[in-house]
Structures are given as structure tokens and as C-alpha cells.
Fold these 2 entries.
Entry 1:
Amino acid sequence: MKYAVVFAKTDTGYSAHVPDLPGCIAAGATLEETQQLIREAVEMHLEGLREDGDAIPEASTVTDYVTISA
């Protein structure tokens, strides 16, 4: 399954969240670290859902960029 991840620059590094998995977040000092941490967070989140007998949410978030002329 493929989930959209939103990465944001912060004062101390980067944060990430997965819109289709509420509560699935990660933060790290670098983008690379944050990418690894969110990958692990998604795996743990899905494992927890399975263990609890909850449904695995379908990936439904659509991402895109909007270009604005300055």
C-alpha cells in the first residue's frame, strides 16, 4: 500500500504526517532521518491497527503542487 506523506520544514528539522492515518507522525533533524522515521511509524501504526482488529484505511489522499506567478 502507498500512503501520501506531508513533510514540513520546522525550526529544528522536519516533521511528517500521513493524512490517511490520523496520529501517524514523525520528526527528525534532517529530511532523510524524518523519511526513515515516518516509514517506521507507518509500519508500526498499521501493525497496531491489525493487532487491534481495526480496518486498515485505504490510501485516498491526493497530492499536487500549485504554481503561482509571483
Entry 2:
Amino acid sequence: MDITAYTFLTLLLNEPTYNDHPCTKDLGNSTDLFATFLKHPKSSNKTWTWASNLIKQKYSQDIRDLTDIENRWHFGALKASEKKLANFCIKDMAEKMQKLAPELWDLLGLMLTAPPRVQC
């Protein structure tokens, strides 16, 4: 029986029968596998594109979740009042963001601590 690597991996990861198979368990360290795809010339660009799209989807969902009315981060300029602005606490906002969207919080920290660019 001829089977491609793609078919083999898809079967291992999607078929519950193989959840305890040694090959499936071995894939638990998938970061090495992803790193291999990134290094390979024929898959590097596609892997970067896939990863980029995946993280953009994650950050977009985190932003939607944070700005959801239920999380009380929804800001309406028309309904803003002096009292609401006076009661605003950036520390509370930061703590809530850390809890609700930790990856987005890490990205924000990375952007705020990035070294400045040299001006030409």
C-alpha cells in the first residue's frame, strides 16, 4: 500500500483510533516539525504564510473579544461622559487584557519595547 506523508499525518491526527499510537504521541513535540517545515526550501514560504494567517486570525479574535460589550471595553464616543473618563483606570485595563488575551498582551509588550529605528 502506497501512502504519502501528508495522508499518513492526516490519518494519524484526525482518526481517534490512532490517538494512542506511538507515532501520534511522537508528534507531541510539533515545534520541531514546524521548524523543519520552515527550514525546507519548498515549504518555507507556505509555512510562514500559514503561520502569519493563523496568528492574524488569533489576534483579530482577541481584539473582537476584548471590545465585546460584555467585557465592558466597548467605547462609544457619543455616550462618553466626564465621569466615565474620570473612572477609567489603565491598570485595570492592562490586567483584563493580560487575562483575556495573553498573546495579544505579549505582542503589545514586544511593540512597546522594540528598539527605535535609526532615522535616515
